[in-house]
Every structure is written in structure tokens, then in C-alpha cells.
Write a structure and sequence with these properties.
There is one protein chain. Helix content is 58%, strand content 10%. With 280 residues, the protein is α/β, with parallel strands linked by helices. It has 2 domains: 93 residues, Arc Repressor Mutant, subunit A (Orthogonal Bundle), CATH 1.10.10.10; 165 residues, Rossmann fold (3-Layer(aba) Sandwich), CATH 3.40.50.10490. Strand 3, helix 12 and strand 4 form a beta-alpha-beta unit. The longest helix is centred in the last third of the chain and has 24 residues. The radius of gyration is 22 Å and the shape is elongated.
């Protein structure tokens, strides 16, 4: 089984495997499930004392779930805590508390250089790990679709709105599912069997996007999924699934790789349709 990449995945795995754990490890599991903020903030020695186990038991617990050490697993709790803090100002404050860092914020040029470096790595990973066959299949699905519907909420909204904009410039009938006015149901009722839906969501996954993707899968609608993990709740609904690992600097994730993939799909569709027209 793949090592969890988000706290929710880890929590699900702990619950699923709880019965097979030793008594000591069950103590750790119970503490971790009930005290996620303490795990994010406290040291290994403090956590061990509060869970009433030796520190070595924490290490064994982390190893049992595929981590190289307890501090590696601890990063999932820190990331989750930061993601639940929606204000960027509060995230910066929280980072200082987590790191115990009294230093003032980095200079803008330092932040720019760090994001540039991280995004460069994310772009290389996107290019090397994206299947050419999946790209071809996705473009063919989009080309044959009568209508293209795009859904992406929260931080995925910028990617979904760009795709809708780009497809309309290709003279494709493209529609953004945004639930404006609470009309998700009405927007979904327009989707037909010869349409294609692109659903975009990253951890923490938008509940509405997952529910929409699930409902469309039951109808047999073709779906192209853009997400951040093979075990994302959306991945199982996909006909084509793209896993994008975005750059991350401290608590702040970029969208550069996702937008690069979106632009690739749009431009590839333009070339595909032009070549198809020339062959006719």
C-alpha cells in the first residue's frame, strides 16, 4: 500500500488497520486520531509522554505506515493544520509558531527565488511523469465531446475558469460548473452522454467536486480528472487521470504546474482539431 500523502488518507488507513495493530501501537493510533493539533505542535518526547508510550513506539508506528521516521509522518499534521488556516496572514503566524522561528518574514526577492526554484522542479516532474498516452486520450475525448463541462472549486477555480476560457476560444461549447446561486443540480442536469467533464481538485478535496464527480460517474459520463494523488477520491471516477504535484513553499502551494497542464490540453486540442480538419 502506498504511503499516505495527506492527513485524511493517513487517518483512514489508521482506522482501517487499527484492529491488526499491537496494543502499544493502538495507543498511539488512538492518541493521533484524537489529538492532531498536538501532534503538529509538540515534540516526539512530549507526544510519547502524553500517549503513555516510549518514544521508540512512535517510531515503530510511523514505520508501520510506511514513513522513514515519526517526524516525516508529523509533516502531514503540520500541512493539514496550515491548510485549515485559510488566511495567508494567519498561516505566516502559524508557521512561526510551528517552527519556533523569531526571524522576520523573508524579503520578496527571496520568496520569488524560492517559488521559482520549486516551480521549476514541479514543471520537470510534470513533464517526466505525465503519460503521453493519457494526453492523447484526453485530447481525443475533448475533441469528440459535444459539450465540455469544467468543475474546480476553491483554489482549483483559477484552473477551471482558464480551461473554460481557452476552450471557448477554440469554438468548443464549454461551460463552467460553479454552483452560482446554489444551482449545482441545475447545471449538472444539462450534462449529456456525449459530453465530457473535467473535474479538478487538490487536497483538501472540495466536497462538492467529489460529489459531482461521483454522481456523473454513476451516469457513465466521461471524465478527465486533474488531482494530486492516485488515491484522491476523484481518481476512481476518471476515464483519464492526471496527477499533478504542485510546488510548495512553506504553507503556500503554487498552481503553475496545473495551469501548465491545462494550457497543454487546450493548445493540443487546437492542433488536433486543425490536423483532423486538414485530413478531411
Amino acid at each position: 500500500m502506498a504511503t499516505a500523502t495527506t492527513l485524511s488518507e493517513l487517518q483512514d488507513e489508521i482506522r482501517f488497520r487499527y484492529g491488526e495493530l499491537s496494543k502499544r501501537l493502538q495507543q498511539v493510533a488512538a492518541y493521533i486520531l484524537d489529538n492532531k493539533n498536538s501532534v503538529a505542535f509538540e515534540t516526539v518526547s512530549v507526544i510519547a509522554e502524553q500517549a503513555e508510550v516510549p518514544p521508540s513506539t512512535l517510531i515503530r508506528f510511523a514505520s508501520a505506515f510506511g514513513f522513514s521516521g515519526f517526524n516525516e509522518m508529523k509533516q502531514l499534521f503540520r500541512s493539514n493544520l496550515l491548510e485549515e488556516t485559510s488566511s495567508y496572514t494567519d498561516r505566516v503566524k502559524l508557521l512561526k509558531e510551528l517552527d519556533g522561528d523569531p526571524e522576520p518574514p523573508e524579503k520578496p526577492i527571496d520568496i520569488l527565488q524560492e517559488f521559482t526554484r520549486a516551480n521549476g522542479h514541479a514543471m520537470q516532474q510534470l513533464a517526466s511523469q505525465t503519460s503521453p498516452e493519457k494526453l492523447e486520450e484526453a485530447v481525443q475525448l475533448l475533441s469528440s465531446a459535444n459539450n465540455i463541462y469544467v468543475v474546480g472549486l476553491g483554489r482549483s477555480f483559477s484552473v477551471s475558469s482558464y480551461l473554460t476560457y481557452a476552450f471557448r476560444h477554440l469554438n468548443k461549447r464549454a461551460f463552467l460548473i460553479d454552483g452560482l446561486g446554489g444551482m449545482f443540480k441545475e447545471q449538472l442536469s444539462m450534462v449529456e452522454t456525449d459530453d465530457v467533464v473535467i473535474a479538478i481538485s487538490f487536497s483538501p478535496y472540495a466536497r462538492e467536486t467529489t460529489e459531482i464527480s461521483d454522481a456523473l460517474a454513476k451516469l457513465g459520463t466521461k471524465q478527465i480528472i486533474i488531482t494530486d494523488s492516485q488515491i484522491s477520491p476523484l481518481a476512481s471516477f476518471s476515464d483519464v487521470c492526471f496527477v499533478v504535484k504542485e510546488a510548495k513553499v512553506d504553507a503556500f502551494r503554487s498552481q503553475a504546474a496545473s495551469l501548465c497542464l491545462a494550457q497543454t490540453l487546450a493548445v493540443s486540442l487546437a492542433y488536433y482539431n486543425e490536423n483532423k480538419t486538414n485530413r478531411q
